[in-house]
Specification:
Elements: H1 37-40, E1 57-59, E2 64-66, E3 73-75, H2 82-89, E4 93-94, E5 120-131, E6 136-147, E7 154-156, H3 176-181, H4 201-216, H5 234-237
Antiparallel strand pairs: 1-2, 2-3, 3-7, 4-5, 5-6, 6-7
Bound molecules: zinc ion (ZN) (4 copies).
One zinc ion binds near residues 16, 26 and 30.
Length: about 250
C-alpha cells in the first residue's frame, strides 16, 4: 500500500488524502511543505484546544493553529503582530479563581516549562456583522483572549453561542469569526477605518458602550437554569404601559 502524504491543506490544515509520491513523504501538491519544519514535526507537536480539548490543526497559510470545533485560534509568539499583542495585554485582565486554563503550547512541550502554566486572560469587546446585502445580524459580546507569559502564545477563543443581547449567533462559515475580527494578528477590523485596531482603547470603549446599550434592552428575567430571557423590553412598550419595566411582557411582575 502506498504511503500517505504527511502534508496538510494550506488553507485549512486538514490532512492530505493523497498518497505520497516516490521516495518523498509528500504528494506532488505538498512537495513544497517538505522544508517546513513545522509540518515535519506535526505528529510530535500536537496541541489541543484549551476550551474543548480537540486536536488543533496547523494552518500553513496563516501560520497558526485552529480548532475545527469551536473556531478558536492559537497564535505563536513568533507569528503574532507585536502591536496587536501590546493592545491585548493592555485590556482589562480577567482573574477567575479556580478557572485557570492551561497553555496549549506549554502543556505539550515539556521543554518549555515544568508544571502547569495557566493562561492569563484579557477581556476584549467585539462586534460581528453577519449576512448579505438585505438581511444581516449584528452581534456584540466580550471574549477572553488568553496569553501565556512563558511561551508567549496567544489563544483567541471561538464565537460564543449567544451574544450579549441574548441573540443566538447564526452559523458562521469556517474562519469567518477569525477573519471578521482579524483576531489572528492582522490588526484592523473589517469595515472599520484603516489603522484602527479592534483592541485599541478607543474602539474598545465605543464597543463597550454599544454592548451595554443592547444588553440594557433585554428583559432581566433569568430562568431556573440561569438562562436569561432574550425578549426585548421594548416589546412591553407596545402594551402601552406607562410604567417602565425591566422585563418583557411575559415576565413582568404584576
Ligand atoms: Zn499531500
Ligand atoms: Zn476548540
Ligand atoms: Zn505557554
Ligand atoms: Zn422576559
Amino acid at each position: 500500500m502506498a504511503k500517505k502524504c504527511i502534508g496538510v491543506r494550506e488553507d485549512s490544515g486538514e490532512p492530505c488524502p493523497r498518497p505520497a509520491s516516490g521516495d518523498s513523504d509528500f504528494c506532488w501538491v505538498h512537495k513544497q511543505q517538505e522544508r517546513d519544519m513545522k509540518i515535519l514535526y506535526l505528529q510530535d507537536d500536537v496541541y489541543h484546544c484549551p476550551d474543548d480539548g480537540q486536536k488543533l490543526l496547523y494552518v500553513p497559510r496563516r501560520k497558526e493553529h485552529a480548532c475545527r470545533m469551536c473556531q478558536g485560534v492559537l497564535q505563536s509568539a513568533k507569528a503574532m503582530d507585536q502591536v496587536v499583542l501590546e493592545s491585548i495585554l493592555a485590556l482589562p485582565e480577567v482573574i477567575e479563581e479556580g478557572l485557570a486554563v492551561e497553555c496549549p503550547t506549554c502543556s505539550t512541550d515539556s521543554d518549555l516549562s515544568d508544571g502547569e502554566v495557566p493562561l492569563s486572560n484579557f477581556a476584549a469587546e467585539w462586534q460581528l456583522t453577519v449576512g448579505g446585502k438585505y438581511t444581516f445580524s449584528t452581534y456584540y459580546g466580550v471574549s477572553k483572549i488568553g496569553h501565556c507569559k512563558v511561551c508567549g502564545c496567544t489563544w483567541f477563543p471561538g464565537p460564543p453561542e449567544f451574544d450579549a443581547a441574548g441573540k443566538k449567533i447564526r452559523k458562521l462559515r469556517r474562519f469567518e469569526w477569525t477573519r471578521r475580527l482579524a483576531l489572528g494578528g492582522r490588526g484592523g477590523f473589517l469595515g472599520f477605518g484603516e489603522g484602527d485596531r479592534i483592541f485599541s482603547k478607543r474602539w474598545q470603549s465605543s464597543l463597550r458602550e454599544e454592548r451595554k446599550s443592547v444588553e440594557a434592552m433585554r428583559c432581566q428575567h433569568v430562568d431556573s437554569n440561569g438562562k436569561r430571557c432574550n425578549k426585548s423590553k421594548a416589546d412591553e412598550q407596545k402594551w402601552k404601559s406607562k410604567k417602565t419595566s425591566d422585563y418583557c411582557y411575559r415576565h413582568r411582575p404584576n
